[in-house]
């Protein structure tokens, strides 16, 4: 299934029901292990995908990664 990840089309290998493991999605999209993988919801909210999380990928869903957020640290 072709999905948008970070603004580019990526062929995501899903099972017959459209399911995938978040680690497989991360690898297929080339998202580094040290960056959070995020599902952008249709209502504008974002959902953080945990390592090993199972999800059903639907057409027109968008995924992105982001730098790790560190609070309270100032150079």
Which helices and strands appear, and what pairs or packs with what?
Elements: E1 2-5, E2 8-11, E3 19-21, H1 22-29, E4 37-40, E5 46-49, E6 54-56, E7 62-65
Parallel strand pairs: 1-7
Antiparallel strand pairs: 1-2, 3-6, 4-5, 4-7
pLDDT average, as an integer? Answer: 84
Low-confidence stretches: none
Strand content: 25-35%
Order of helices and strands: EEEHEEEE
End-to-end span in angstroms? 42 Å
What gross morphology would you assign?
globular
CATH class: Alpha Beta
In CATH terms, what is the architecture? Roll
Report the C-alpha radius of gyration, rounded. 13 Å
Description:
The strands form two sheets. The chain has a five-stranded mixed sheet with strand order 2-1-7-4-5, with helices on one face. By secondary structure, the protein is mainly β. The protein is built from one helix and seven strands; from the N terminus they run βββαββββ. It is globular. It has one domain (about 1-65): Ubiquitin-like (UB roll). It has one helix at about 20-30, and strands spanning about 1-5, 10, 20, 35-40, 45-50, 55, 60-65.
């Amino acid at each position: 299934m072709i999905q948008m990840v970070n603004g580019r089309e990526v062929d995501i290998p899903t099972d017959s029901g459209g399911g995938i493991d978040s680690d497989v999605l991360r690898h297929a999209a080339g998202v580094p292990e040290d960056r959070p993988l995020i599902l952008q919801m249709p209502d504008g909210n974002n959902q953080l995908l945990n390592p090993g999380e199972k999800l059903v990928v639907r057409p027109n869903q968008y995924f992105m990664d982001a730098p790790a957020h560190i609070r309270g640290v100032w150079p």
